[in-house]
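Following up on my earlier message about 6-O-phosphono-beta-D-glucopyranose. Here are the inputs again, as you asked, copied directly from the submission form:
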Amino acid sequence: MTDTAANPLRAGLRLERTPTPSVLVIFGASGDLTKRKLLPALWALCEDRSLPPGFSVVGIARTPMSHEQFRQQLRDTTAADKTVDPSVLDNFLQGLYYHSGSIDDPNMYISLKALLEQIDKERGTEGNRAFYCSTSPSFFPKIVEQLGRAGLVTPNATGSGWTRIVVEKPFGRDLASAKELNQTVLKVFDEKQVYRIDHYLGKETVQNLLVLRFANTIWETNWNRQYIDNVQITVAESLGVEQRGPYYEEAGLVRDMIANHMLQLLTLVAMEPPVAFDADAVRDEKVKVLRAVRPFSDGRLKTDMVRGQYAPGFIDAGKVAGYRQEAKVSPTSNTESYAAVKFFIDNWRWEDVPFFLRSGKRLPKRVSEIAIQFKPVPHRLFQDSTADVLAIRIQPDEGMTLQFDAKVPGQSMRERPVLMDFRYGTSFDVAPADAYERLLLDVLLGDSTLFARRDEVEAAWTIIDPILRYWNSTPAQEFPNYDAGTWGPDAADDLLGGQHRRWRRP
Ligand code: BG6
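Thanks, got it. Here's what our run produced:
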């Protein structure tokens, strides 16, 4: 049983990874995430021959559905794919079960236990189980408690089959609720059995940040305050809130994106080299970054962040509604669909280097990028010289671009920025896998390196709580303040301060 990846030697073994036979139990199986992400990711792992023999899935939801109807969901998503081998698909589908019932009902867990024991016998899954909470967050504590009560959780150190729990985001809605959820979970599970998922950590390019920084010497000397002027992290989406109005009204952009995905990106850019690529060493360094983030004083709450909400506008020449006109959104809503925040990290490496994070719905395009903006040369010999930029493109067109100055051919010493480009698609000739593939495989393998630890989640909420409190107590008079299809409110430009700093237009 391997519930940690504590051995540094694992680093070299990560390529040949096959989990032990096991069952994945998904709570919220009739939901969108299961259909759109989890089942397709598991199928992709199956096609890759990465799943163990006998691997099975039990979907749980209140909606009555037969095993066959549950299986049909995956048949539908693969129907158009001509490369699918029907016999491999059929084999995989045979391991998919559906169990209908209410999350509140203790009897449902008793019948689930019987089903899991039957699967163990029939498919040789040896009592190894991962439970995936993909329901609405208000059900997470109930699921955990009922699993404990029904005797479905094997303690971590026994030799008789492993149990793990995956908790989807959002993990709490502020520091107090995150702490409470942690306490509930840790009454039943050991921390090493808990996988708090943040799908951004499963993205190839996000993992590549670690390789970029720690497998190459060229950045080591300049990845700090001496050479870096500022860091800009942008996660822009052209979609609006779609059908998720009720969720979004409760959450808002800061909870939905900055408290988790974007702070994760910030920690990976800013962390010190871990001593090994394993769960504890990597997460120790990430937590240190979060603890070093400068707390927001009352003054900075007014000056170092900008919120926005979209008005009607145009995306790809099509007219789209404003946030307040979206389905199940209040016509006087105070919820932000855009935020830009200036962070500082108070440590030797980063003192006084601003980290600008911005994200929004209904921006002109879907693009996520981390831009490392280097300082200009200390003494300018050439009039037109510009500062260098390393742009790490997370999606789409995954890759990296280094922008630096070169001499324009000709008799005069003129220069202009040129690009050195690395594209995943061109260099590796494969499309990056979906984030959920990597993360689901890691759960089955017992490798929690790419999942958030308890202290990490609580440190993130400690940073974010003052923003939420301040915005909650001061309703935005200016909403809506950006048109759909633009790059957000004008005030976000002022956040960068100083003439030489501008948001990149990715
Ligand atoms: C989710 C948020 O966690 O991430 C969504 O709840 C957001 O609002 C999504 O759209 C973005 O993920 P990706 O992988 O499409 O960048």
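One observation from looking it over: The longest helix spans residues 245-270. Hope that helps, and feel free to reply on this thread.
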